[in-house]
Amino acid sequence: MSAPELRFRPPGDKSISHRALILAALAAGPSRLRGLPGSADVAATRRALAALGARFEDGEAGEVVVRAPTDWSRNGPEIDCGNSGTTARLMLGVLTGLGIPATLTGDASLSRRPMDRVVYPLQAMGGRLRYAGDRDRLPVVALPRASGSLRVLRYRSRVASAQVKSAVLLAGLAAGVEVEVHEPAPTRDHTERLLAGLGLDVEMDRPEDGGARVRLAARDRAAPLPGLDFEVPGDVSSAAFLSGAALLSGRSVRVEGVGLNPGRTAWLERLGAMGVAAETRVEEERLGEPVGTLRIRPGRPGALRLGPAEAAGCIDEVPLLAILAARAEGESRIDGVAELRVKESDRLALLAANLRALGGECEERPDGLTIHGTDRPLRGRVRTDGDHRIAMAFAVLGLAPGCRVEVDDPDCVAVSYPGFWDDLRRFEGDAT
């Protein structure tokens, strides 16, 4: 008799949570947020907003009440963003829009990640930002704006980055000026959806060049931004690791209450192309975000083909897809993902080095990988460099028959998925 289907409800979506907290802190009335994850990254955004005067009250059943500052702090606090690039880049947009001072710092990993990509467009709007040390790296100092507002910005980004886009949108929102961002490829659109769900004038379209455009109209800063009453959908990126665990362990999985934003499910399309049986059903919408159920049935996937056109839509799930490719039939190829070299770690280098250390075959290229699938046992210890997605991906590989994988820093998964190890253990037993 086959093992029963495992059911999960993943932690709240990290990307949406950052944005919901920021918009709640900018709103005129109190906001009520439910389903915020206990991840370290989201906690960093909450601390950053609290340092500027936002107030938070933890209520029953995990509800958090957020109240905007009666007066934003102008004391120039030093704000530690930890390992959260989203916190750093989105808060630079908020600080620029409000014209208030602060210094943003981060841990050693975050301090190696590029910041010019967001600092440059914010400076083009009139934001007063400077580097306290090395150019393009934290710490970044936001200086107060003496008078006047920001300039209207129409920005054509050279990188497909939801963080860059969101920083510009949040600066425009806080300052009340029109902004428009063109991206070379579509990226996750949580900020736009939330803004539209709150009644703001947002335009989104896909130009013929294959990119994406979003425009936020100017608004009267005296017009109050409404508070949020919002339950954060489950994190679809966390669901990706549960799906991978299903495929490699031989267990069927049902993930409930998960966000099914089309900008976040490109990895499911790749699984479908690999022959994986996946089913999604949208059951409701929350502030423009589709939410529903995902089901995955086990089976050995075929080879993966991931090119530049698909990469931006599943960049966070590439480590998981690479691990599945290592157990797939045939040769897999991943291209157009050089962005992975400037994430929490150099993910391309770590994926290649760790797969080879375990006994797999993987060739590294400047913007991708070639992976030769095998059903041989892969065993050994992997180096994560403190990267949560590398840790979770290789932990999933350890569920494959005959494989044994030890992760050198298991605690780093708390950045996004604090309950990951408890959930993963369910695949090894009969719990439902």
Offer a few descriptive terms.
alpha/beta, four-stranded mixed β-sheet, 22 strands
DSSP, total strands: 22
Radius of gyration: 21 Å
DSSP strand content: 15-25%
Q: Per the principal axes of the C-alpha atoms, what is the gross shape?
A: globular
Mean pLDDT level: 95
Please give the oligomerization state of what you see: single chain
Give the strand line-up of the largest sheet: 1-14-16-15
Distance between the termini: 15 Å
The structural class is: alpha/beta
Low-confidence segments: none
Helix-residue proportion: 25-40%
Largest sheet: 4 strands, mixed
The number of distinct helices, counting runs of at least 4 residues, comes to 13
Could you describe the 3D structure shown?
- With 432 residues, the protein is α/β, with parallel strands linked by helices.
- Helices cover 31% and strands 22% of the residues.
- It has helices at residues 14-26, 40-51, 85-98, 116-124, 162-175, 190-197, 236-249, 266-273, 308-311, 318-326, 347-357, 388-397, 420-425, and strands at residues 6-8, 31-34, 55-58, 64-67, 78-80, 102-105, 129-131, 140-142, 153-156, 179-183, 202-205, 212-216, 229-231, 253-259, 278-286, 289-296, 305-306, 331-334, 361-365, 368-372, 379-382, 404-407.
- Helix 3 (85-98) links the parallel strand 5 and strand 6.
- The chain is globular and about 65 Å long.
